[in-house]
Every structure is written in C-alpha cells, then in structure tokens.
Amino acid sequence: MITIQKANHEHIHGIAKVCIASYWATYGDLLSTKYIERMIQEFYTPERLLEEVMTTSRFWNGWIVAVEGGKVIGAGVGGMISENHGELFVLYANPDRRKEGIGSMILDAVTKELIEYGAKEQWVNVTKGNIKGIPFYEAKGFDFINEQDEYGVIEGEDFKALRYHRFLNDLHAGSIL
C-alpha cells in the first residue's frame, strides 16, 4: 500500500535516489550531462535534503513522499511564491513506477497544502521537450503561459523551461484531497 506523508530524516536517501534516477530518466536526452550533474549536486545531496526536510514554512512546505514497504517511491515539494500564488518546485516518481498515480497523489498533497496557505493559483516549470511532464501537467489543468531560460543555465547553454499555471478554485474539491 502506498502512503503519502511528510518526509522526515529517514527519507533523505530515498528522496535523493528517486530524484536523481528520475532526473536522469527525464532529462538524459534533453539536457547536457554537465547541466544534469550540476543540478543534481545543487539540489539532491543528503545535506541539502536534510536541511529542506527539517524546514517548513509557507514558502517551503517541506517534502512530501510516497512510501511503499518503507521505501520512498516518489517525492515532491512546493511553496508559496506570493500572497495567493503557490508553486510546485519538484515532483518525481521512481522511473520504474510511472503511470501508477504516484505523481498525482503527491501533486494532490502539495496542492492541498498550498490551498491551506491561501494559494488561489499554482505554477510549475517544465523543461521544454519533457514528453513525460508536459502531458501530465496539462491533464491536471495547467495551461502553458510562456517560455523562459531553464534554471541555472550558464553561458553556452540554451535550455528552456515552459511556465505552466492553473487556477485552484477551478479544481473540484474531490480531485485534490
């Protein structure tokens, strides 16, 4: 049975494992190896994840994990980016467990928290060409807004992110609980 819960220090290595495996599976053909390694080193080290798991606020809601048999099989996190706007910062499921609803369960949990903090709208960035993420978010009611530089690009890199948005009051209560 899959449980969705707030992450704690026991989930750190599982979050790292899922995020790193998913990052490579999702972006291996879209982004350079150097860029991927740089982002993994910035965001998915045990030290950073421990700090993030132990920190919760309106601007950083803390990691949510999907756990089955004591093992992390998905992870996500969001926060408020302004008074009425929430953002999904990260959402990954074990690449071998795609299409099982894990991402939807985590998205619902993160969204519910954002609504509790007052979010009326929700944002997410999706790497241009991400054929796994784009259909998922569009199916969840997110609409494309604009294209921008991907986070952390340096001179010589031309990776783009697509900015997506949805109004949370348009969602049916049952779809986010």
From TrEMBL:
Entry-linked SUPFAM superfamilies: Acyl-CoA N-acyltransferases (Nat) (SSF55729)
Classification via InterPro entries: Acyl_CoA_acyltransferase (IPR016181), GNAT_dom (IPR000182)
GO molecular function, one term: acyltransferase activity, transferring groups other than amino-acyl groups
Keywords carried by this UniProt record: Transferase
Residue stretches in coiled coil: none
CDD domains linked: NAT_SF
Residue intervals of the N-acetyltransferase domain: 2-169
Name under which the protein is recorded: GNAT family N-acetyltransferase
Organism whose genome encodes this protein: Oceanobacillus arenosus
Top-level taxonomy: Bacteria, Bacillati, Bacillota, Bacilli, Bacillales
